[in-house]
Fold this sequence. Notes:
30% of the residues lie in helices and 13% in strands. It is of the alpha+beta class and 289 residues long. The protein starts with 16 loop residues before the first helix and ends in a 5-residue tail after the last strand.
Amino acid sequence: MPTRHSKNATSAAFYSYHERQKIKDVGTQRERLDTNALRRFEACWLCNRTALSPVCTPQGLVYCKQCLFLNFEDQKKKMSRELKEWEAQENAKKEAEAAKKLEEESAEKNKFLEEESKIASYYANQRKPTVAELQAAPKKNQHLLIGAGGKATARAKSFWVVENTPSAPAGEVKPPKRSLECPITRKPLKLKQLVYLKPELLDEKDTEFNRWSCKISKRAITNQKAAAVIPTGDVILMECIEKYVLNKKGGFYGDKIITKQDIIPLVPGGTGYSSHNNVEGIVRRACIQ
């Protein structure tokens, strides 16, 4: 039998602290994620597999060399297609301007001829028409049923006809971009800006599913901050770089002088609801009062 205790009192109009502790399906739930729940640090940002022949952009994104070059090829095809569309649009604009100019010249010429014909017809109308001319003149009500302009004019005024149905104007094609872009950041990217990485693997035999390790500490890189050394292409943990390589004025790495400009912090990847360095997952549900 339940004991008489304030923890078991459920007749109050609000939830007590002990009642809240017993309910697990409401409120904000927190759980620490393990390594398997995070995106692999060495994964390519395009194929999401361990990067083969990895390259790094100046922004710190890691790609497979083949994946990045295939993306560049698609970008070039897209730019070529957009360039053709833009050139066709510009040619159409020039033709439209030329036709408009020709139409204005023709209208001005017709206006001049009309003014001249008015002067000639004024003197011609001074005499009375003959009987033969009156008989040859068309009847006034000949096109009464279909309008004064004939079938073409009546069809042009009918909005339900297919060719008269309104349609949205085609959008203007913008000038295509001339330079390649990073697939993720959409910033201009050149091939000479790529850094070819030479990461150290935990298991040299497994190159497809193996993890990268720090060149100095030999620790696996999971959710730590790491960086690439531009002159050598090595991948090193940031704490090792700050502790052993760099100082206020720079430092030595092997036989090379390293400065902050020679270090590219690599961008880690997170999960769907957790950032890379914050390994705590949070799920917010309905709260209770």
